[in-house]
Amino acid sequence: MKRRASDEVFVGPWFDRRKLLQSAGLAAGLAFLPMFQVDAAPLRYGLKPLQLDAGVWMLAGVDEAISSDNGGAIANITIFDTKDGAVVVDTGPSKRYGLELDAIARQLTGKPVARVLLTHFHPDHVFGCQAFASEALAAPQGVVEGLKQSGEDFASAMYYLAGDWMRGTEVVLPAKAIVSGHEDIGERRFRYVVLQGHTPCDLAIFDERSGILVAGDLAFLDRAPTTPHADLKDWHASLKQLGEAQFSRLVPGHGPSEKDRRGLVQTGEWLSMIEEKITEAFDRGLSMTEAMAIPLPSWAEKIALSRYEFGRSVMHLYPKLEDALWPRVDTRSN
Amino acid sequence: MCLSRSSFAIFAAVICQYAVVVAPAQADSPKDPMNSPMWEDMREAFIGDASYQFDPRVKVIVPEVVENQAQVPVTVDARSLPGVQKIVVFADLNPLPHTLTLSPTAAAPFISFRLKVEQATPVRAAVLTEDGTWHVGGKFLSAAGGGCSSPAMARNKADWSLTVGNTRGRAWRQADGLARFRMTIKHPMDTGLAKGNIPAFYIDNVMVRATSGKVLAKVEMREPVSEDPTLTLMVRLPAEDRAIQVDSHDIDGNEFSSKIDVGWKQSQLNTRELQEMHP
Q: Which among A280, A325, A329 has CB closest to B167?
């Protein structure tokens, strides 16, 4: 292949930021990287807690795709105050985010973080773990397995998408395994429900004292759900189970926290809609890129990132449909 | 001081280069709209000295986000251009830029397939029309790296060789009279760039024929086409034909044949029906 040695200096968008940011030669490299932006002030997420109840706060993620503008801070994070210390649900997209989260949790509760719970293994929820003591980190075994398998690939993708925000971020595996049941931390009793559907292992957390249900990415609201590791049938079943619970307030993985069940209902409707639309496009013989362009119902088009996530879902679901629905046509199969 | 022979040669070469490279750029060599550092090499490799233009009628469609660098869906659509003879698809910054070449003998100048990308890159199609001009279209694909140097998924399975060549697919008669088919052939499509000394091993030739044996389309594939190549094409199948014949071979000489029925009605496919037909 023809490759000029001088290609190395064409950095535009074409270079591996993860390697670059991790490499000791960064300073030397900068001399040749005029397009690489160096911010004078260090990047800061500037997290603003939103109080949901007495001793309960949410850090709202933005309704955007992961980018170098938002540093990957797209998921909701929840903080509970207990007598024994703060309880944090999910840790955000980067080490930098985790450090800011730790500082905010200490500031809000006046105590160190006693427990960190991870709802699932996706990078926008787990890459702040380095900021916390490893014995405080807890997740269902399935989440740990997911991180073992995909953590490194997620890290590379995050470095590519979010850039400098990711500096120093590494995969951390939680030490404590969670199973369905309950755990008392200080005066609060947390009920853990290990479910599946958004990923092969999703944790929902119910705080009995406030009545708040933290659904992780099993629920999205006014922001299109993501499906890279989804099993739609399992997801619907999990939504049904959560829908039967009594709760005072729902914290979805993405989108606003509300007192009703709109997050559960809308997530279910979105999943049914994409399955119907994608199956129909597949059945008409459209290729993936053609299917990505079909119109959606107007209620769905209004949801943030609807086209972006619909396109992703086409890429996730099409190979499964090709495997399941097309007949064998090779001559030796006859 | 007298100019040495070698200095003169260099001087002459510089002048010549100036004349060859710069002069045509001012005269009739169009500027790459994507400003890729590899464009001149690509032009030399795929177009040579023939005349060319960047042409919006050549549409290259890629997703705005890529999660799986080993399976990036791409569509090349040159149906707005008359007299298309050949479509060459390449990705400037892939270690192996040439991806595939479609000769749509009796087919629409259209192809959908999936691509491995090693890093973010322009994805382009150079389309040759009857008048001998190349029309170039492209789109910048934003992606993290690794698609070409990762081993095929099949390499994780001990019995992958048993399923090589297994083909699934379906065909549809379109309202415009063309027969559209989509198919996927089990094949690792090894690039030769993955660790572990796995040599290149890929399907390099796909021939699409009518029942009479007449060639409707030819697709020459290269390493960057994704594992288990999945193609969408539209061919001018004679009205009386009931099936599309697809014959392919890989660079080790393995041959694969399939026959895709065109009698299927749209929107009436369900899994039970399929199970009854193919238990």
A: A329
